[in-house]
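To: structure subgroup
Subject: Chain for Friday's discussion

All,

I'm putting the inputs and outputs inline so they're searchable in the archive.
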Amino acid sequence: MSGEQATDRNSEPDAPMPDDLRAAESPFAQFARQRQVLGLSVEDVAQQLKLAPRQIEALEAGDFARLPPGTFARGMLRNYARLLRLDAAPMLAALGERSSATAMPEQAVVLPDPVPFADGARRLNLAYLLISVGVLIAVGVLAFEWMRDNGRAAKLEFVPAAQTPPAPQTMVSSIAATPVIAAAETEAQPSPNPTPARAQRRINLSFGRESWVEITDRAGRRLISQLNPAGSEQAIEGVPPFEVVIGNAQHVTLTYEDRPIDLMPHVKVEVARFTLE
């Protein structure tokens, strides 16, 4: 009897693999599992990464046909992995394999004949080039003539002081008196409370790792907008308030007028955005 039971148990079919184990076969399934462990919804992640919820769902499903191609999809994948503190390498490798498989038919396409109209396009480009050169020459000639005419007008209007006819005495007296009266009125009525110009302020930045920084001043001028290498420093001066954007902010030290500023309260997904008054 025990032998028959053992035989029956050995003949039973294998139990179906649970859904979560099948999903674990795909490296992209780590996204959904880790998101749930952290207690985040798809909408929470979409808001933090500034993406649409459907794009988050496509990343978790590994459905890159629903995402922008190439570099954009890889950037989304890296940012999502960084947010969940996952290693992006397996997902990037899987994405590369899918991209290679998709690109194979396109690489196999061979054009049987040369592209038509190549000579015509070359002649058209040459014609455009000649026309552009002609326009530039014409503009240069017009500008030269305009400057020369203005120079002549200035010479004709100039009268040496020795040749200027003397003005009547009454005219000289009235002209000479005018500045005195104006000066007296100015002294009697000083301008009330002139608004002082705002003083410039200084921002010092030190980069522990590579970081993008953009700072604009009160007038909206960009004082800096560039990628800064690790180990470098920047000193910026301008008129506040300053609008500041710093990438990879946890590795950047900022002092404002020699006063250290804590960037962490302003960081969202490694980017700090704030205003310095």
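Points worth raising on Friday:
The chain has a mean pLDDT of 75.
Residues 19 and 25 are 10 Å apart (CA to CA).

D.
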